[in-house]
C-alpha cells in the first residue's frame, strides 16, 4: 500500500485552513473597541457673544491621584456655539476607563485661537456615571 493518497493531503489542508480561519476570527474580535457614550450638557452661565470662528471643545480626561489632568480619553469639537445649553455626546472605547480611577470633563470655547470660556471647576466623573445620565458642565467667561 502506498501512503501518497490524495485524500490525506486534502484533509490536512482543510484542517489547517479551518484552524487558520478560526485564529483570524478570534484575532479580529479581540481588537474591536467597546464603544460607550457619555452625554453632557454645556451650560453657559452668562450670555455668549461668540463670533463665526467660535468652537466648543468638550473632553474627558483621567485625573492623577493629586487631581492633576492626565490622559485624554475622548474629545469632540463643535462649531455650533450658542447661549442656550448645548448637548454634546462623547463616544470612546469603554476599555480605556479603569475602575476606581477618577475622570474629569473639561469644556471650553475658543475663538480665534484664544480660550474665551471654560468650566471653572473640573466636573468629576466616575466609570459608573457613563451612560446613566446627562452630565452638566457649567461654562464661565475667562
Structure description:
- With 142 residues, this protein is of the alpha+beta class.
- The protein has one helix and eight strands.
- The chain has one helix spanning 7-30, and strands at residues 35-44, 55-63, 69-78, 86-93, 103-111, 114-118, 123-125, 135-141.
- Strands 1, 2, 3, 4, 5, 6, 7 and 8 form an eight-stranded mixed sheet that branches.
- The chain is elongated.
- The termini are far apart.
- The mean pLDDT is 84.
β-strand number: 8
Helical stretch count? Answer: 1
Return the string of H and E elements. Answer: HEEEEEEEE
Amount of beta strand = 35-45%
Radius of gyration: 25 Å
The quaternary structure here is single chain
CA distance, first residue to last residue: 90 Å
Report the uncertain regions: none
Q: Calculate the mean pLDDT score and round it.
A: 84
The best one-word shape is elongated
Largest sheet: 8 strands, mixed
* Helix vs. strand class: alpha+beta
- Helical content class: 10-25%
Key features?
single chain; 142 residues; alpha+beta; 8-stranded mixed β-sheet; 43% strand
Concise overview:
The chain is of the alpha+beta class. Helices cover 17% and strands 43% of the residues.
Write the layout of secondary structure elements.
Layout: H1 7-30, E1 35-44, E2 55-63, E3 69-78, E4 86-93, E5 103-111, E6 114-118, E7 123-125, E8 135-141
Parallel strand pairs: 1-8
Antiparallel strand pairs: 1-4, 2-3, 2-5, 5-6, 5-7, 6-8
